[in-house]
Amino acid sequence: MAETIKDIRGQKIRELVEEMKLYNNPQELEDIKKIIKKNVPMMMRGYLLAYLYVTRNGSTTARPARAHNTEHKTSQKPVLENATAFYINIGKLSKGSAHEMVDFICEKTGLSSEDIVSVAYKQNYSFVYIRSDKADKVIEAVNGQTYKGRKVKMNFSKEKDEQ
After folding, report:
1. What is the CATH number of domain 77-162?
2. What backbone phi and psi angles, to 5 degrees, belong to 131?
3. Per-residue CA distances from 161 to 5, 99, 128 (Å)
4. In this predicted model, what pLDDT tens digit does every residue of 58-109 receive, in sequence order?
5. Which of the residues 13, 32, 50, 90 has an alpha carbon 20 to 30 A from that of 41?
6. What pLDDT does 4 receive?
7. Contact predicate 153/138, CB 8 Å
8. Which residue in 88, 91, 83, 137 sits closest to 110, CA to CA?
9. Domain parsing of the chain, residue ranges
10. Is-contact 157 125, C-beta < 8 A?
11. What is residue 66's predicted lDDT score, i.e. its pLDDT?
12. From the CB of residue 56, how many other CB atoms can be counted at a distance below 10 Å?
């Protein structure tokens, strides 16, 4: 069935090309072409055409609506078994990377990078998930230290309903 949809779409695109060649106002097409050239990066122009085709002509294989993904994105932090969640005031604006932050935590605590299960690296802060059996004394070791000129604050992360 997928092959027949491709055939139908290919035929429709060929018809549109022929229709475009016969369009009675080529200057209008040229003007729009200039606007597209100015506003759409070259590597995205084919995607723009494909998007316009799908949204204007209907698609029998439309993507699922984004609403399916919103539930996943609203969760502040992933559910991780056997891991303790920590809040730390280091983020992207701290002029570092998540990897550098992990190295910093490992250096101050004596943990290995394998003990840090996951990192949610945000703009101004991060959530760090550390194996529960290794989470003791992490806050004591990191709190008050300096990371790239900034005093570090680290706490246990609160659940949403506790905030």
Report:
1. 3.30.70.330
2. -50, 130
3. 48, 30, 19
4. 655 545 555 544 444 444 445 567 888 999 999 888 888 888 888 999 999 9
5. 13
6. 79
7. no
8. 137
9. 2-57, 77-162
10. no
11. 52
12. 9
